[in-house]
Amino acid sequence: MRLDLTHITKRFPGVLALDGARFDLRAGEVHALMGENGAGKSTLMKIVSGLFPPDAGEIRLDGSVVRFATPAEAKAAGIHTVFQELTILPNRTIVENLLIGREPTRAGGLWLDKAAMRGEAQAILDRLGIALDAGRLAATLSSGQRQMVEIARACAQNPRVLILDEPTSSLGRAEEELLFDLVRRLREDGVAIVYITHRMSEVFALSDRITVLRDGRFVMAAETAEVDRPALIRAMVGREVAEDRHGLDPDTLPVALEARGLSRGRAVRGADLTLHTGEVLGIAGLMGAGRTELARLIAGIDRPDAGEMRLFGEPYAPGDIRQALARGVAYVSEDRKGLGLVLPLSVADNIALPSLDTLATKGIVPPRRIVAFARDWMDRLGVKAASGSVAVETLSGGNQQKVALAKWLAIRPRVILLDEPTRGVDVGAKAEIYALIRQLTEDGTAILAISSELPELLQISDRIAVIAHGKVAGVVSAADATEERLLDLAFSEDQAA
Amino acid sequence: MTLRRANLADYGLVLAVILVIGALMLISPAFRDPSNLIGIGRQVAILGIAAAAMTFVILAGEIDLSVGAVASAAAVVTALALAAGYGAWAIPIGLLVGAGFGLLNGLLVVYIAVPSFIATLVSFFIAQGVALTLTGGQTILFDADWFRALFATGDFLGSRAAFWWLVAVALVLWWLLARTRFGSNTYALGGDAESAAMLGLPVGRLRIAIFTMTGALMGIVGMILIARIGNARADGAIGLEFDAIAAAVIGGTRLGGGYGSMPRTMLGVLLIGVLNNGLAIMNVDFNTQQVIKGALVVGVVLIDRWVRGKGAMG
Amino acid sequence: GTAEALELTPEQASDIGSRGLTFGFLTNNQSDDFSRTLVAGAEAYAEELGVELLVSNADFDANTQLSQFDALVQRGVDGIFLTAVDAGSIGQAVRRANQADIPVFIVGGAPARGEVISVMNAASYQGSYDATAAMMEAIGAPNAQVAILGIPFALQTIRDREKGVLDAVGAAGGQIISLQSDFSQDRLLELATNVIQANPDLAGIVATWSLAVNAATEAVEQSGRDIPIAGYDSEVPGYMQFHSGDTNIVALSGQQAALQGRAALQGLSQATLGAELCEEIITPNLLVTADNYQEMWEVQYPGTTPPWEN
Amino acid sequence: MSAAQPSPRFPIARLLRDILPYAGLIAVLLFFSLSSDFFFNLRNFERLVTDSATLMLVAFGMTLVILLGEIDLSVGAVVSLLAVILAQIMGAGLPWPLAVLVILLLGTAIGMANGIITVLGDIPSFIVTLGMMAIATGLSFVFTGAISVAILSEPFLVLFYDARFLGLPVPLWITAVAFAVAIFYLTRTVAGRQLYAVGANPAAARLSGVPVRRRKITVFAIMGFLVAAAAILSAARLGSGAPASVPALTLDAIAAVIIGGASLFGGRASLVRTLMGAALIAALNNGMVLMNINIDAQYIVKGVIILVAVVLERLASGARP
Ligand SMILES: Nc1ncnc2c1ncn2[C@@H]1O[C@H](COP(=O)(O)OP(=O)(O)OP(=O)(O)O)[C@@H](O)[C@H]1O
Ligand SMILES: Nc1ncnc2c1ncn2[C@@H]1O[C@H](COP(=O)(O)OP(=O)(O)OP(=O)(O)O)[C@@H](O)[C@H]1O
Ligand SMILES: [Mg+2]
Ligand SMILES: [Mg+2]
Fold first, then answer.
1. What are the angstrom distances between the C-alpha of A167 and each of A146, A194, D2?
2. What phi, psi does A329 have (nearest 5°)?
3. How far is residue A8 from each of residues A11, A126, A214, B313, measured CA to CA in Å?
4. From CA A330, how far away is CA A295, in angstroms rounded?
5. Which residue has the higher pLDDT, D44 or C68?
6. N or C: which end of chain C has fewer CB within 10 A?
7. pLDDT at D261
8. 8 A C-beta contact, residue A103 and residue A114
9. Is the CB of residue D276 less than 8 Å from the CB of residue D25?
10. What is the structure's pLDDT at D127?
11. Is A111 within 8 Å of B179 when comparing Cβ atoms?
């Protein structure tokens, strides 16, 4: 098996997404595709997956030119893709999502074999070690869980080519390991794997070769063994990126938010937290541990069944999100597509959405003011877009994430809850965001950062609280935290249960 | 949130409908007369079939405003064919007319990318124009007892043929929807068309198939219509689209697609049928009927919603 | 006055023909037999006279009809004839026609305001009274239970028809036990079926419009019971019923639509020639029965071959 | 689909882009102008706009409602009901300014009721307004005994139809003002701008602190107000309050919005384009009358013209529905 992409060009209104890019892939290799946000990685892979044709260039499969008019044709050729934006259907069960389009049938296709479907789906989950009940409605899954289902779907169709576009962007360490084993196994079986990620560690842990794109152009391709981290980053970003590490002692700082015995349903069961002004409190935990649910409670999106909170000393029990916002508490969702952004709306409108009231005088906002406001924040976070008036859905994944962040930083909250804040953000931009977070803390903002990427937590946090089974299993200061230590806590058994 | 929850949720509508039926039975002896209750079955045949088809269309995230006009056109053509002595050939002819308009809808939506609201509005006008031109506004009489017996008047297992057509169509569509790939693809399409396309589902073909099937079913509706009354008119089924959508939505089908089921739609149909029958039998005048129906429909849906609890709309 | 009074002399006719006139002709709908026959009658006669006819239909939307009316005034036609969706709601436009002195000739009640050259009316009340009376006589028995099958429409003629029925039934000592109405033939069939179903002692049904007649006959047939029917509007199905020789229809009151269509143009022409028309022109209805249906067809649909002959 | 394209660099290009979406309407106007000598004259256009004031007002409201991903099926029935009530209270001797005020309040209340039941009951507005439609229709017949009620107050009739202000008919002014205000609301007020988010992604809007429920209720109230205004104009035009006087209105209004490129399921709608859609429908009805097409064929012609217009418009603006 051999896949060669040459001189691929793709233009979208206002952007040249790909500019004569090339890429080649061999059986039995894991080929990392790297590049900044907006470099054109997803676009290139969407072209391979038959989502849209290239404006120019050719695709050769085993030497012969191929053209995939539809995703179906690409699948038929054995090319399966996990897209960056999840394609899970929330109104269907995991079973239906896993087997869609290839459901087992009886009576010569006349009758869906529900029993067999259930069995096969559960089998797939179990084989990949995903602990989920296949009967569950996808809508009730946390985004991490959704992503695992998505991956399972692609792998279960024994692909010849497997394209993974940022598969780990909201996976925790444990699932990451699951995925790695899976990928390695597939490589043994001679599957050709394209692996797109922004997590450097993964690249070196997993890939055999690396191709780097910048601004839609081919920059370099090399054996992973022959490049080192700084070199790779330089190739991607075109400059050096500092990766420092923090760790001040927050106990000296005034308390911003205090939570005692917060509980909700089975997800959160009596969590205690103390968050200081000017501190970054990292939240680690396995997928489904209850981190997001906890954040939703603090943000006033859900109401706790039990427990109480204090904000800057005052009792704090937000009845709804608006009350939380009024008290200066903002939440950046992990679910960009579903909860974070309004995809069809323009970048400017998305950024301004929570700030409209403050931008307005007597309820009236001159559009000009909105554009200028958005422009300012786009610049601060370096959002890459043709203009503020393009729809967010046309931005690259990472740039969408930046918009999602900008929108909330723009209200200048006193406490900000970041759920997977750098999902799909490239190294360069990550550094910028980290710097931004730092800057916020210096202005006395209290930051609670949920992340499934331990290196990230270690880098940005002053202290890290580990959640397990909806409880805080322990808090360690970043200074003396290690990935092993955090994982131990994350896996620590639930005493209550 | 698994199947058990969903079933439980369905009882909300069942409960509400039972309440209405119960009330009517208490108030009106004529209503609770078994032969009347059986009669309701055939009285909702046309609405039922249209609503079943409409459920498919809505689940796929589309809408079809043309069903009434298409059914009328098919009815007229069939009647003319029967009158002209085509005999049994009238049936495939009528089906073709319906399917043809359905296909037109599908092609417009898929290849010209016109929103289905407009595509079907267009074929609504065209179908109506065709029917009027063919009839010249006259009532078309035909004389074919076998045909009338086959589609409406014939008795079978204590009920009229029309009713059995409804049963047959409802069962087939339920099977298509709940037990075939076609069905799960339809849910996927309505749930998130973009994802469905990314998953490599044949969204285009799917849309065309659904519209064409709906059209063909409107052919059957047209035939039942003329078989019931024994003549055909250009305006025979005008307004049907509206009742069909209403029945589906009362049944909890989500406009915009992805959520709904055939049994629930049939409950919606039953509710409308029962109200029409009961209020008429109690000789409530047309306008008062409207007021009562309006209030009851909203009430029923509120109960259903309440029982199903939060987030149940998927 | 009567329609006959409007007849044009050959001289007048040729005079009109020579003027190259354009008349507007607005119907409240176009799918019922009455409107079609009316239009057909008018179109046929327009040919004869040599005037252009602009026909439009409002699909029972008063707003639409007003727009159509205004468009005609705007265009400056030489006369407008209309079957109003709602006579009470066309007055404003009639006024504008008056200002543009365009003669207006209306069917079904005078407009709320504005001047019309005349109002043409079918004998709605008398027609339905006569048909009903015939049915009551056929029933014979005292305090017979009668059901009315109608149309839920805000039209004066409908009210008149219903009144005719009430009075005729009352006069024969019968009683109305149910009044149901709908627009669709299919629903009317259900309603009729339900009424028959629910009233074992039902002695007769009066249908106050054409589709109700079809529905009633079908329902009675299916019920297998022997319930006499009287109806307003005699159309092809009704005639075929009589022709079949075996029907429950006792009598149908038929409007002379073709005659009205012809009279419409004659009235407008007369006005153009400066003649004064009398305020109301009544076109008497035909009482169609099993005995006289053959002659009546010729009167109601002049120049068309009866359905039973092809 | 709804991606706002970056504005082209060259003025000509921009001009083209701004005009092209109306290719559909322009085509229709050309078509009628060429095929009837009576269509293309100012008086006819003025009349056309004046006569479509009712449709326009309702269509504006419908644009907001559909933008939210909701629908209002009751508008036609409520217009008739309000017109009937207006005629009756004026008949009962209430001076017209008061009567008008009462109707505006009543209309707003009905709209608000639709909104509140939809939002608090958390059921589809399709059902709620379906119910409202049936109820309103029923009541308008019950109140009147199924006969239209004449309006005798000359000042009222004159003011809301014939009267001119700065040379233009009052209905035209009312439509224009409603349009301007609606545009302002959508583009320049906080509440208005939030509607797009609410329609496109209610969950995200809520998480962004948008009071989704309040917005929905407000929009239904606005719809009610505009329906009342439409009822007043319609009553003045017809000179009466008649039950079921405008059966075509609801579908026409929705069609105008969708022809204007809105998504029936929310998040995308434009008042300007709705205006075009409404104008297109009005032009159709008007042009048909003048063109002396066979009455049966008129339906087919209407259908084909709508299709052509929409396809042109879609191609022109490069939008994919
Ligand atoms: N449908 C679209 N319409 C318009 N522009 C698009 C579209 N899809 C992608 N683009 C643009 O193409 C460029 C490349 O996007 P792409 O998603 O391939 O980047 P990427 O390398 O995947 O970035 P990331 O790492 O953030 O996912 C970006 O500038 C993006 O804005
Ligand atoms: N919308 C929802 N409805 C029902 N259950 C949910 C929902 N979202 C999450 N859950 C469940 O609640 C538990 C906690 O989910 P949560 O999203 O908080 O996990 P998490 O720690 O944030 O992991 P992830 O990073 O994958 O989101 C999980 O079992 C998840 O399946
Ligand atoms: Mg990407
Ligand atoms: Mg989470």
1. 11, 11, 28
2. -110, 120
3. 10, 39, 14, 43
4. 10
5. C68
6. C
7. 83
8. no
9. yes
10. 92
11. yes
For chain B, which residues make up each domain, given as ranges? Answer: 2-307
Q: Is the CB of residue A163 less than 8 Å from the CB of residue A190?
A: no
Dist. CA A211–CA A207, nearest whole Å: 10
* Number of Cβ atoms within 10 Å of the Cβ of A127: 12
Give the pLDDT of residue D4: 36
Task: Return the ligand 1 atom nearest residue A36 CA.
Answer: 25
**Confidence class for position B228, pLDDT limits 50, 70, 90:** very high
State how far the Cα of A371 lies from the Cα of A376, in Å rounded to an integer: 9
Please state the ipTM of this predicted complex. Answer: 0.89
What pLDDT is stored for residue B310 in this prediction?
A: 56
Whether A30 contacts A51, CB under 8 Å:
no
Token pair of A105 as six digits: 């049938």
Q: Show residues of chain A in contact with B184, CB under 8 Å.
A: 92, 96, 100, 103, 112
Q: How far is the CA of A290 from the centre of ligand 2 (A)?
A: 6
| CB A38 less than 6 A from any atom of ligand 1 | yes
Q: Which of A11, A341, A356 to mutate to test the interface with D (most CBs of D within 10 A)?
A: A356
* Chain D contact present for B245, CB below 8 A: yes
Among A487-491, B6-10, D84-88, D238-242, name the one with the lowest average pLDDT: B6-10
Question: pLDDT tens digits, residue range A204-249?
Answer: 999 999 999 999 999 999 999 999 988 898 888 877 666 665 656 6
A146 Cβ inside 6 Å of ligand 2? no
Which of A277-281, B173-177, B275-279 holds the top average pLDDT? B173-177
Burial of D217 (0-12, 13-18, 19+ CB in 10 A): buried
The residues in C 33-62 lying below 8 A from B, measured between CB atoms, are 33, 35-36
Determine the distance separating the centroid of ligand 3 and the alpha carbon of A33, expressed in angstroms. Answer: 10
pLDDT per position as a tens digit, B238-284: 889 989 999 999 998 998 888 999 999 999 999 999 999 999 888 88
Which helix (H) or strand (E) segment is A161 a member of? Answer: strand A161-165
- Spatial CA neighbour of D82 closest among D131, D143, D129: D143
The candidate with the shortest Cα–Cα distance to A331, out of A359, A360, A297, is A297
Q: Looking at the domain that runs over B2-307, which CATH code has it been given?
A: 1.10.3470
Instruction: Give first-to-last CA distance, chain D, whole Å.
Output: 6
A183 has pLDDT over 90: yes
Q: Which of residues 288-307 of D touch B (CB under 8 A)?
A: 294-304, 306-307
- Pocket of ligand 2, candidates A86, A93, A130, A142: which has the most ligand atoms within 8 Å of its Cβ, to mutate? A142
Length of chain B equals 314
Q: Which one, of B89, B99, B26, B30, lies nearest residue B66 by Cα?
A: B99
CB-based contacts of A31: which residues, under 8 Å, 6+ apart?
A23, A25, A192, A193, A194, A195, A207, A208, A209, A210, A211
Tell me if chain B has a CB within 8 Å of the CB of C195.
Answer: yes
Chains in contact with chain B (at least 3 beta-carbon pairs closer than 8 A): A, C, D
Domains and CATH numbers, chain D: 43-316 (1.10.3470)
Residue of chain D nearest B245, judged by CA positions: D126
Residue D162 is encoded by which pair of tokens? 């014939």
Distance separating alpha carbons of residues C305 and C265, to the nearest angstrom: 24
Given this model, what pLDDT does residue D2 score?
Answer: 34
Residue of A495, A492, A493, A496 lying closest to A484 (CA atoms): A492
A368: amino acid identity, one letter: R
Cβ contact D–A (≥3 pairs, < 8 Å): yes
Task: Report d(CA D270, CA A396) in Å as an integer.
Answer: 27
pLDDT average, residue stretch B111-119:
90
Contact assessment for residue D201 and residue A343, using Cβ atoms and an 8 Å cutoff: yes
